[in-house]
Design brief:
The structure is a single chain. By secondary structure, the chain is mostly beta strands. It contains no helices and 20 strands. It has one domain. The strands form 6 sheets. A 5-stranded antiparallel beta sheet has the order 1-10-4-7-6, with no helix packed on it. A 5-stranded antiparallel beta sheet has the order 11-18-13-16-15, with no helix packed on it. It has a 3-stranded antiparallel beta sheet with strand order 2-9-5, with no helix packed on it.
């Protein structure tokens, strides 16, 4: 089945420092995939359903600016469901920027998986308010990209240009330094840039993973053949029977 965004939950805090950041609750069905993006370095990703998350590593663009905090991403396939799933990211206490005044978390609940990591990309800029990601070319005909964007201005709000779909409004949990968006792709033809806009010019970063899903399996046939001989009213004859059915 094609990949579908079943729901999204963001979260964020201001006036830190903080040791963790927690998402809003969302209804997640068992067997779905969960993708989690957070601002800066994290050491653990947990939830209230007991799922195990795989770390994808740290994306950082410009390390000398506030936007150089970058993102951490985690994901889980074939998850344990929960009617009010809450995800928690724990920050790396050895890095001062991990305990920043502003935090954010983005959680995508995706059906149609399991997800296969395709690419992990980031774009950066030093001026202007147009945040451009890509162009990119997914290698799977059925794919999803989960993007997080941040800007150096703490009061920046965000908007996404088509074909991106913005998730969670113009910011994450009211923290107007980060925003999330996604794109589901059903074709690998042609690379295209993805654009978001910030209300205030400044240094920015936008990035995230691209996941693919395997092709939809076609039904297969099972062929049953029978050969034999029989006798009816004193006469012998041979027979051949073929049966086919879809599995």
């Amino acid at each position: 089945m094609p990949l579908t965004l079943a729901s999204f939950a963001g979260g964020g805090q201001q006036n830190g420092p903080f040791a963790t950041v927690v998402s809003a609750a969302q209804n997640v069905a068992s067997g779905n995939s969960i993708v989690v993006g957070g601002r800066w370095l994290t050491t653990a990703c947990t939830d209230n359903a007991g799922n195990t998350y795989i770390p994808l590593g740290h994306l950082v663009g410009n390390p000398v600016s506030n936007a150089g905090e970058g993102f951490d991403y985690w994901y889980c396939n074939n998850c344990i469901g929960n009617a009010a799933l809450v995800v928690t990211l724990t920050f790396n206490s050895n890095h001062a920027q991990s305990l920043d005044t502003y935090t954010s978390i983005a959680v995508w609940n995706i059906s149609g998986g399991p997800l296969i990591l395709d690419q992990y990309l980031m774009s950066t800029g030093n001026s202007g308010s147009t945040l451009t990601f890509g162009p990119f070319a997914p290698r799977y005909p059925n794919s999803i990209i989960c993007l997080t964007a941040i800007a150096t201005s703490n009061l920046a709000t965000f908007s996404a240009n088509a074909p991106l779909t913005q998730d969670g409004g113009t910011s994450l949990g009211g923290v107007q330094i980060a925003s999330a968006s996604h794109l589901i792709s059903s074709t690998i033809a042609g690379a295209q840039p993805l654009v978001m806009n910030a209300s205030v010019s400044g240094t920015w970063e936008i990035g995230g993973p691209i996941f693919g899903a395997g092709p939809i399996p076609l039904p297969t046939k099972k062929r049953i053949e029978r050969f034999g001989a029989a006798q009816f009213t004193g006469r012998e004859y041979a027979y051949y029977i073929t049966l086919e059915r879809l599995l």
